Please model this.
Amino acid sequence: MLSSCIIVGRVKEKPEIRTTSKGNTIAYMLVEVDRPFRNEDGTLTTDTFRVVLWRGIAEECAEHCLPGSVVAIRGRLQSSAFEKEENVYYNCEVIAEKVTHIR
Model:
């Protein structure tokens, strides 16, 4: 089975590069994507996705992806779960495989 996704949206915050304990470069980027329909108030809403960027993609995005920039991201979804106070919480992130800076 394969997990694959494509999102096109605006960068919410400039990604900041960090280095893992194993020496790999990593950055996180929030991307806002418009929903294709209006809510009950008649306004368009957005979804915010956390995108994980590794190595060269992280460095490139940290340099070129400024808040408000439009990007297209091809990647895969990765989920995780954790327990806190007897409740289970689920998290889903986009692991970027290719990022194209549109404008």
Q: What stands out?
A: DSSP finds one helix and six strands in the chain. The helical segments are 55-64.
